Amino acid sequence: MIARQGIERISTPAGILAAPLQTGKANVDVHLPEGKPVTFHLKLGHRKPIDWVAQVSLA
Predict the structure, then answer these.
(1) In degrees to the nearest 10, what's the CA dihedral of 55, 20, 39, 15?
(2) How far is CA 10 from the centre of its chain?
(3) From first to last of its 59 residues, what are the pLDDT tens digits of the chain?
(4) 44-to-18, 26, 33, 35 alpha-carbon distances in Å
(5) 3-state helix/strand/coil string of the chain
(6) How many CA atoms, within 13 angstroms, populate the side-chain half-sphere of residue 43?
(7) What does the domain layout of the chain look like in residue ranges?
(8) Whole-prediction pTM value?
């Protein structure tokens, strides 16, 4: 899952996140169970578009 403005907070059922969230990062890896619905609650960051360009250029 990728959120261009960064992910500030995420809540999911136990076992869904592959690793703990690193606040402000743009992506998170998840493990989705086959055939079962999963609900995510996200709080997205608030950045200016130029901030994203600067972050990507550092990678």
Answers:
(1) 150
(2) 7
(3) 666 677 888 899 999 999 888 876 778 888 999 999 999 898 887 766 666 566 666 65
(4) 19, 9, 24, 27
(5) CECCCCEEEEECCCCCECCCCCCCCCECCECCCCCCCCCCEEEECCCCHHHHHHHHHHC
(6) 8
(7) 7-58
(8) 0.56
Parallel/antiparallel/unpaired status of strands 41-44 and 7-11: antiparallel
Which residues lie below 8 Å from residue 8, measured CB to CB, with a gap of 6+? 23, 24, 43, 44, 45
Amino acid present at 6? G
What is the dihedral angle through the alpha carbons of 1, 57, 44, 12, rounded to the nearest 10 degrees? 30
